[in-house]
Amino acid sequence: MKRDNSNNVSVIIPTYNRCNIFYKVLKALESQTIDKYRFEVIVVDDGSTDDTAQMVRDFAINSTLNIRYFFQENKKQGAARNLGIQHAEMPIIIFIGDDIIPDTRFIESHLRFHGNLEEPYKSCVIGYTTWHKDIKVTPFMQYIGEFGHQFGYSLIEGIGPLRFNFYYTSNLLIPASLLTTLDKVFDEDFDVYGWEDIEFGYRLENIGAKLFLNRDAEAYHYHPVSVASFCRRQDNVGRASNIFLKKHPELEWFLGDKAILGNNAKQYLKAVIYKNIVNLVDNLFSIPLPHNIYKFILDTHYAKASFY
């Protein structure tokens, strides 16, 4: 009897120099509650220089997972996802990150929720990503995970449809057929971290795709960050905003009016002082501070970098 593969999944994971954490991701996929024949794991190594290649090959030999490994020179995560899409063989795609460890019911929950939507053929789903229990979660990490600078789950009421800025490719289900309606998938002009997934979501929204939230499709972010390290991320996001704005000038309201950003950037030295103090308080004492302080530091770093 021929198996029905209409609800089978290609899990696509770009990775770069995170061998030890990525091993945990693969182990979690090995423990999924759905049958192994129902999903494949496509690993796209974006030019890693650590032991990622050997680890994945050794893991695949001893695993029941269907793992397919592809290597490319470092071209960033958008290009890595595109390569994974080219090789995906299943009708449903789930993107996760190489530091995102899925719950055992992760794929099962995604499929059940998506299948119950009114128009699954044009519906995408983000799952809920929270911090892993094995890492120390500071008040700052709690803030960025819930209030918009990394994820904005506490800003979401209900299940959707959601706007394009919630297309989190660290935990995203999308029908493969939807991708064929785009003139391109992930835009590889984004050669610095930031915005390529949101720009992708904006184009999907414009062709009528809908995005929903399934909080039961849970995964755990295994990536401790500090105020200082996240400000470096904001620098990259600020630079990448210029790439986004050239492609979609109509979204200046969303990316930031240049006059307002310029005024914010003038407070950069104050933000650096705040950053150093808050970084110390957060790391050593785990004292929660008002959200407007975190927001000021991060928004100012973004604004300053947007003028590079």
Element layout with pairings:
Elements: E1 9-15, H1 19-30, E2 39-46, H2 52-62, E3 66-72, H3 76-87, E4 92-96, E5 100-102, H4 106-115, E6 123-131, H5 139-146, E7 171-175, H6 176-179, H7 196-206, E8 210-221, H8 227-247, H9 252-255, H10 258-265, H11 268-285, H12 291-305
Parallel strand pairs: 1-2, 1-4, 2-3, 6-8
Antiparallel strand pairs: 4-7, 5-8, 6-7
- Rg calculated over all Cα atoms: 19 Å
CATH fold naming of the largest domain? Spore Coat Polysaccharide Biosynthesis Protein SpsA, Chain A
- Per DSSP, the total helix count is 12
What is the CATH superfamily classification of the largest domain? Spore Coat Polysaccharide Biosynthesis Protein SpsA, Chain A
Order of helices and strands: EHEHEHEEHEHEHHEHHHHH
Q: What general form does the structure show? A: globular
How are the strands of the biggest sheet laid out side by side?
3-2-1-4-7-6-8-5
Uncertain segments are none
CATH architecture type of the largest domain = Alpha-Beta Complex
CATH class of the largest domain: Alpha Beta
Mind describing the biggest β-sheet? 8 strands, mixed
Task: Please report the total strand number as a whole number.
Answer: 8
**How far apart lie the N and C ends?**
60 Å
* Average pLDDT level: 94
Q: Structural class given helices, strands, pairing?
A: alpha/beta
- Beta-strand share of residues: 15-25%
Helix content: 40-55%
